[in-house]
Structures are given as structure tokens and as C-alpha cells.
Amino acid sequence: MEGVACASFTSSASKSLSFSLSQSSIITLRQNYHNNTLKSKSPRKLVIRASSGSSSGSVVTLLDYGAGNVRSVRNAIRYLGYEIEDVRTPKDILNADRLIFPGVGAFASAMDVLTKTGMAEALCTHIENDRPFLGICLGLQLLFDSSEENGPVNGLGLIPGVVGRFNSLNGFRVPHIGWNALQIAKDSEILDDIGDRHVYFVHSYRAMPSNDNKEWVSSTCNYGDDFIASIRRGNVHAVQFHPEKSGDVGLSVLRRFLNPKSQGSKKPTQGKASKLAKRVIACLDVRTNDKGDLVVTKGDQYDVREQTKENEVRNLGKPVELAGQYYQDGADEVSFLNITGFRDFPLGDLPMLQVLRHTSENVFVPLTVGGGIRDFTDANGRYYSSLEVASEYFRSGADKISIGSDAVYAAEEYIKTKVKTGKSSLEQISKVYGNQAVVVSIDPRRVYVQGPNDVQFKTIRVPKPGPNGEEYAWYQCTVNGGREGRSIGAYELAKVVEELGAGEILLNCIDCDGQGKGFDIDLIKLISDAVSIPVIASSGAGAVEHFSEVFMKTNASAALAAGIFHRKESVKAHLLKEGIEVRI
């Protein structure tokens, strides 16, 4: 069976339907999930042209339908020296010399937007005529017959196959987030400079290779099973990974597409990528100092002030400069935490939005931002939903947003009512942008008890007795920057937020923060064994050995730190020496 989106293209282009939608219109469209009835249709015939080695100047046409972080793709294109022309009508697609479609978010809502704006058929015509095309992530998935995501839902029907969800029952965490290896199946042209190096994936759904689509498949990736990582047919390319977030390797992919005759300025570095790598994430705690300047600071059990007479905010440097430095030093992701965001109005925090915008111009790895993502009413009485707040962060350059206190409140309500209202920030954002775009940040502290029956929460037997000889402890969750304890444990919170739509957990520990004595292995093992989504270990790293310890003793997918990056210690060299696969 094939999708029905590419019906006869009679007048879409001539109607020149405007594609300039307001953000509220886009959000409304994307919330209208349609479980389309699949219909059989004769296979479409594609014309295969000789590989196009030229383009009209340095202009690239970009199809941005208003979902997620497309700013990063724009920045990568401009970084490579090309200008961008945005698609505003279906005719712009038909006239494009080189078209890039960076699909982001959920399959059904993307098809809904493309169909309602008249773009779906124009896309089919562009591709059928073998015009140069590059789809990214969802931009690859939409080419297939259909998807099981919120469906079945019809796709464009150009490539045989159904996009299905990864199976988490075999021990692999879903979403598939991180740097993984490619297995090149045939001459792909745009992958020529990759070598054996990792590229960045973030998705919960994938298309599988089959006899019906094997002529399209140019590379696969293994994550439980071999799935399609890229396709090529003539001048038509699409990749499941994100080249704009894959560092220099990803930029080489974009460069090859934009100028097929280009050669790399130097021989690509040969890596040893063979599987999903463990991620090393640089964290920047950002806040204004007493002079009003936005600075990167560092906490000591969440206290960011120097223990001096002046009691000033610790100042480690400027956020944009440090993010760029960490990217050059090999950080796999950069995470910004606006540590006063719980009391500020984020959409009024123009400096933080500018940090994201400027950072994304030169940092081509994933960016996460957290702090204050919840519903707001401003001083003028205007209400802003958490979805609108998150959307502004995405438009400013964020790839993922981190929710803290609001996720705790949502979990408490769900435990009490057993009802998913769909109104919490966690549920709203994951529904519209996909759960891979939502990180829940958990801020627990250890509470010692005499026995496991003393509390209603999950406890652990501690390796060292507590201050009064206690042999057990539970992890109490906090809100408002660790200032307020809540009656919910980290274990219970992690289980609930996964059910409500979180795609990843950032697991902090107030007791370990700033101590430099290592991660809380007991806590991380407890949570990473309890959920099927990726867990990021945080708080306490003071030496490179702490990273190998957390990866060897727990199921953490990534480890996050701040101070060790400031000191320029070679975490990855140590991990490689210990036999732990990382991106180089």
C-alpha cells in the first residue's frame, strides 16, 4: 500500500497558496492529528536524471513549515556560504534548484501542515522529476507510504515501507538519542567524507530496509535492528540523522549536497565508530550576576555565590564563548540551564534567547535549554502557554527543552488522579514536538531512613550508613531550584514522566553537586534501570575516572558536567583508553 498525499497536482502551484503561517496557526495545525484511511494506489514513477553537478549560484531553497529548531539548519547552510530562499508557495518548491526539507516533530502533524498548505503534492513532483532534494530526519520518514506514529497515517508514498517505532522490549532505549555509526550500502555521494565516524540521531520511529525499497537505501544504522539511515536515488537524498547537529562530519554531508563536485579540504579523519557512543555533555549554568551581566556560573550544592565578603555570583565566563569552546573541545551536546528561570518570565528573558541564537550560529551539536518552561501570565495579563514558551526556545536555536518543577507538579497530579489531562507542559510539548524534544530534569536529595517500610517511596540500601546509622535512603524530589522538597521520590517521578511523554531524563543530585567526588552511582543505577528512556548522569564529576565509573556501573546513556570542561581535562581520551566508545 502507498500513501495518498501525492494526488494529481492540478492547481496547487497556480493557486500560489501562501505558506506564511503564524506560529499559533502552525501549533493549531500540528495538534490536529488525522488518522487517515490508507488507500491503495498505483506506484508512482520516478524519473532518474544524471547526477546534478551544478546549481544556480549559491541559493538554497528551504522548506520550513514552522516546527522545532530549523534555525540550526539555516545556520549550517549560511556557515557553508550559501543564501537561503524560503518556500512560501507550492510553486517555490517546483522552481527550486536545490531543496532542503528539515522535518521536525510528529509525522501526522507534519503531513497535516503539508497537505493544508498545498505543499505535499509539490514535494512529490519535485522528487519525481529528480530535482536535487535533501530530507532530514522526518524529512526522510515522510517519503514513505505511512507511519504508525499516532496512526496509521499516510505519508507521501514515494518509497515503499511503513515507519514504525523502535522496540524497547529488547533492552534498547527509546528514543534513539545520540551518536551512532553508519553502514554504507552503496555510493551515496553526500556521505563520501564521513569515514568511520559517528553522526547524531534523535528519533523514536524508523523505516526498515526491505526488498521493496532496497534500491533506495544508501546506508543503514544498527540500533537493535538495522534501520534505514539514508536513501539516495539520482539527485534525491534523505538522511535519518541530523547533519546540522553532527559537527564537522555533518557539515561535510551538507556541503556535498550543496555542491556535489566539491572535495573536502582535507582527508576526513578516520574514526572507529561501530555502535551508539556514550555521550559527554557540557553544562553551562547561566544567570545574571549582581551587575546585570549574563554569566556562566557553578554551583556548590546549588549555591552559586562565592564564600567571600562580597558574596558575588561565581563568574566562569560568557555563555556564547564558552559554548563555542566546549564544542571545539569535543562536547557531544551543550546544555544551558537558566537557573533563575523558575522565577523569571522566559519570553521576557531576551539575553537568554540571544545566547541561544548566537551559539547556534557556530555550534553544530545539539543544544538543550531549561529553566522556567511552564504556563505564564505576564504583567499585562497576557497568558502564554508552556507550548508557546517552548516554541520560542526552539525557534531561537534549542533542539531540546528541559522541564523541571513543572514536571514534578504534573507527576503529582497524575499520581493523585490517574488521568492524563494533556494540559501539562510535558504532555503538550511532547505531543506537538515529539518526546525526543523533551528532557525532564530531576533534582533529588538523599533522605536516610531506618528501613524500607518507613516511607512509601522506593528506597535503596546504602553502602555507607547515614548520620544516625541508617541503612536505607530514598531520594526526595525538589522544585524551585532545590529550595522546596516534595512528597515524591525520584524513582516514582521518573516512571511517571516517562509515561507522560518525556524522552530523556537529566538526573541531578543535590548532595553531590559541586563536590567533585563522583556521580551518585546508587541513584543513577536506580533510575536508569527503572525506565526505558535515556538517562543523563549529572552532578559530582571531578575527575575523568568518574565518567568511566558511571558508564561501567550504570545504564546511563550520557554524563553531564561543568567544571571538568573548564579545566580542559581529556574525558574522551580516558574513556577510549577504558574501552568505552565515544565520538571523536
From TrEMBL:
UniProt cross-references to Gene3D superfamilies, sorted A to Z: 3.40.50.880, Aldolase class I
Binding-site list for L-glutamine: C137
Active site: C137 (for gatase activity), H242 (for gatase activity), E244 (for gatase activity), D285, D443
Classification via InterPro entries: Aldolase_TIM, Class_I_gatase-like, GATASE, His_biosynth, HisF, IGPS_HisA/HisF, IGPS_HisHF, Imidazole-glycPsynth_HisH
Example of a GO biological process term: L-histidine biosynthetic process
Pfam families reported in the protein's UniProt record: GATase, His_biosynth
Pathway, per record: Amino-acid biosynthesis; L-histidine biosynthesis; L-histidine from 5-phospho-alpha-D-ribose 1-diphosphate: step 5/9
Protein name: Imidazole glycerol phosphate synthase hisHF
